[in-house]
Amino acid sequence: MYGLLLENLADYIKSKYGEDKWEEVRRQAGVEQPSFSTHQVYPDCHIPRLAQAAYEVLDVTEQEFFDQMGVHFVGYVSQYGYDRVLSVLGRHMRDFLNGLDNLHEYLKFSYPRMRAPSFICENETRQGLTLHYRSKRRGFVYYAMGQIREVARHFYNKEMRIELVREELLLETVHVTFQLTFDNRAFTLASLTMTREEKHLPISASVLFEIFPFCIVFSSDMIVRSIGNSLMVILPDLVGKKLTNWFDLVRPLIPFKFQTILNRTNNIFELVTVEPVLTERQSAKRSNMLVLSDEIETDFDEKKLRLKGQMIYMDNWRMMMYLGTPVMPDLRALITTGLYINDLSMHDFSRDLMLAGTQQSVELKLALDQEQQKSKKLEESMRKLDDEMKRTDELLYQMIPKQVADRLRTGENPIDTCQMFDSVSILFSDVVTFTEICSRITPMEVVSMLNAMYSIFDTLTERNRVYKVETIGDAYMVVSGAPEREHNHAEKVCDMALDMVDAITDLKDPSTGAHLQIRVGIHSGAVVAGIVGLKMPRYCLFGDTVNTASRMESTSEPMKIHISENTKELIALEYK
């Protein structure tokens, strides 16, 4: 699957729901790439995973999501110039629908590994038509519906109603029948026949087969009756044989039968030989070569002859004529199939296109390689940027609560983040005889001791879901009830205090080897909380509750928890 579809999905979510929703969808889907290269192939599982995540994050249904994504696609591709192609594909909406397969053939030059769907029109009336959609990929039915409806509105100024008549799976191919209802007066104009006398211009079969050197004439029993001059050189035994035994029908995705072809003459037909095409010279050369097994498989596919062209029913002959031309991406393909430049038609510029294309292919390949390298570097830079942003967020959330930080990111004034909290619980703690301990040990030992203690306390804050306000020296301050309001803030802080007293026994005084001891004080009451500072912003608490909690700690005893009367009234009986 090419990145163009994934980029359209990302752009649709960003434009309608915002960048944050796209990041949430991407993370939930487990897709690491923050962006996609339009011409790079990605795993087919990306869109189903992203879509499934979008249903949950955006609260939308499958039909709504894919339908609107299809509508968005028509406008999105305009930045790549494809809107000009869409605008000239057909004079009327019916012409556009009949030419959809041709559009995908054109796109294969830019997206050679594309597995294009097939569109076939039938039962056309003035009120609409029946459209058959076939694809090797599942899950894009509503996507196609949105695209077609938006094309009708945007390019042809027509309101179209699309009804899904039937959906079935045939040999790993999704076959969907749509009933399209729209103003199709162009069908009436096309149905009008103009009677005029024409002078018959007789033309011999030899001239016809020279003009169309790769044409195939076959009857209703699929037996080949005549072929063009160039085709006669490389497939001399084809005449009189059954066409289906020599060729496979690649496009459109329909049964390879005479009546089916007769009903689909407005489509481009692509045929490929069942077996590789080898001339006598190539066969002799091949017999004298030792070829590895993987190379044999490659040669087998490359030496098949591909023809692309139009089917025309010749009423006078009661036969079908296939006006095909060989599909040759470069001179190498011409050589592997045993063809020469002079085998191609003169009147349709096939020879000129082959030579001009070969001349430009090297430059284009070099440019493409350079762009792909740039794209890889850009993706790597985007990945590193994403990692750095995650680290920045983690650091920021250690200084400022996530809820407040997100408000500041939106441009909100720091003063506006200040809030009044009627009831919170604040905890202070410090190390007993900390000054004496520091006088007996080195500064590095002091730092190591504090790091070990604070690492344990930080883990306990996450377990008890309280917020660490700050640390100053050996003092440690936490709060519950701010910035998120909690009804059981006193219980959470008391749990934190009990865990701190239990955990400190695992740490020892570096100078004596005795266990460290702490004092803890807790008080509950009203505070004002908000951001202070611009260069180094901090989340701070203000009010008499802070001072009282600090005094509760300073008047506490070693390895004891000193709580105020206010806190005592808020905690449950099991703490008393």
UniProtKB/TrEMBL annotation:
One of the record's GO molecular function terms: guanylate cyclase activity
EC category: lyase
Presence of keyword Lyase: yes
Domain Guanylate cyclase: 425-553
Stored PROSITE patterns: GUANYLATE_CYCLASE_1 (PS00452), GUANYLATE_CYCLASE_2 (PS50125)
Coarse class of the protein's main subcellular location: cytoplasm
InterPro entries (UniProt xref): A/G_cyclase, A/G_cyclase_CS, H-NOX_domain_sf, Heme_NO-bd, HNOB_dom_associated, HNOB_dom_associated_sf, NO_sig/Golgi_transp_ligand-bd, Nucleotide_cyclase
Keywords for this protein: cGMP biosynthesis, Coiled coil, Cytoplasm, GTP-binding, Lyase, Nucleotide-binding
CDD domains: CHD
EC number: 4.6.1.2
Pfam family, one: HNOB
Family: Belongs to the adenylyl cyclase class-4/guanylyl cyclase family.
Signal peptide start and end residues: none
Organism expressing this protein natively: Cacopsylla melanoneura
Compartment list: Cytoplasm
GO CC terms: guanylate cyclase complex, soluble
GO BP terms in the entry: nitric oxide-cGMP-mediated signaling; response to oxygen levels
Protein's name according to its UniProt entry: guanylate cyclase
Coiled coil: 361-395
PANTHER family reported for this sequence: GUANYLATE CYCLASE SOLUBLE SUBUNIT BETA-2 (PTHR45655), SOLUBLE GUANYLATE CYCLASE 88E (PTHR45655:SF10)
